[in-house]
Every structure is written in C-alpha cells, then in structure tokens.
Design a protein that fits this description.
about 220 residues; elongated
C-alpha cells in the first residue's frame, strides 16, 4: 500500500491537496486483494476523501493569512492556528489508530490508550484562558465519549468550535484594550517632589511659603 499527497495548482488559481492511494497484492494474495478492492472500493474512497479533507483543513489553518512573522513579534492568531492545526492532526491520528481495530474493540478505552500513546507535542505559547495541552486533553476525552461512527467527523467539529471560542475571546480582549481609559494621573518617582508631605510641620511651612509667593507682586 502506498499513499502520497501533493499540493497542486487548481484551474481557478487556488491550491489543491491531491492524494493518491495505491494497493497491490503479491503472489497468492493478488486475487484476494482484487476481490476485496472490488467490494470495498466505495468505503476506501470515502475514507481517503475524509483523510484528504482533514489534512487540507489543517494545512489551511496554518497557512491562512500568514506573512512570515518576525520572531520578535508575538502573533496570537498564528499561535491559535498552529495549536489547533496540530490538535486536528493528532486527534485524526488517534482515530486512525482506533479504526485499525475491529469494530467491537473501538470503544472509549481504546481511544484513550491511542491518545496516551501519541508522542509529546510542541505547543506554541499559551493564550490567555487557553492552555493548549489541557485543551487537547479535553477534546480527546470528548472524542472518546462520542458515538463510534461519529468520531471522525467529531474531530473537525470539536476543533472548529475551539477556534470560534478562541477568536471570540481574543476579540473581546482586543476590544477592552482599545476602549480602556488611560490613567488619570501617573505619579512616578523623580517626576514629582513630594517631600513637603513628610510631616504636618513641613506641610505648614510649604503652604506658608506658597502663600507668600502669591502675595509678592511681580514686576
């Protein structure tokens, strides 16, 4: 079995992700494989289509509106796209491993073990209110509890919901930052001389001198 994927230019000028799956039997297995492909080609094509759509969506999450940001500049939307695209790929990989088992073994414990066996992820910096590692763990648990035949579609739905939730939270934070009133008065050491407040006697002398200055005529 050989699976290949490539990004090609579409007639309308956009990019298309094209996948190709090749299956070949060897020796005495060749007639058996040919019979299996004839009877199951509809489901095989459907599975490859779902894999392609999920992979294309993950690549789009990363590449959309990216303009090679400078390393010194923090880009929260890019962090979100990078984190959620990684979640999507990892959770689809969990589902791939679960679907390799017989249907009666595709229970929630199998999902949990498949997720626990995944290699550690390298996450971008967490955003306010969104800890990527914890968020992925919650999504994996929700996926495990989903009905068996709905899990693959649930991966994209769960990640898309988190993208919407993060975007809404980020927009609220940005709106508060724009409309927040500035400080009425800033007192910084060295800008204001407040030594005249150190005792009642010094305050009295300071006010007496200020009144005397006002009473002195200017020429």
């Amino acid at each position: 079995m050989r699976l290949s994927a490539s990004v090609e230019a579409a007639p309308d000028g956009s990019d298309e992700l094209v996948t190709s799956l090749e299956l070949a039997g060897r020796g005495v297995w060749q007639p058996l494989v040919a019979t299996m492909l004839t009877t199951t080609q509809h489901w095989a094509r459907q599975a490859v289509d779902e894999l392609t759509v999920g992979l294309a969506k993950s690549l789009g999450d990363i590449s959309r509106d990216v303009r090679v940001p400078r390393q010194v500049r923090d880009d929260p939307p890019l962090r979100m796209r990078t984190a959620t695209a990684q979640m999507r790929l990892r959770l689809h990989r969990v589902q791939d491993e679960v679907e390799l088992r017989s249907r009666w073994q595709q229970h929630r414990w199998t999902c949990r073990r498949a997720y626990a066996s995944q290699p550690p992820a390298t996450w971008p910096h967490d955003s306010p209110g969104f800890v990527w590692a914890r968020l992925e763990q919650d999504l994996a648990e929700t996926l495990a509890r989903s009905p068996r035949d709905e899990r693959r579609a649930a991966v994209d739905r769960l990640v898309d919901e988190q993208v919407v939730a993060w975007t809404d939270a980020h927009e609220r934070v940005q709106a508060r930052a724009v409309h927040a009133p500035g400080p009425v008065l800033e007192i910084v050491d060295g800008v204001y001389d407040l030594r005249w407040l150190r005792s009642p006697y010094v305050i009295w002398r300071h006010l007496k001198a200020a009144l005397a200055d006002e009473a002195t005529p200017t020429t």
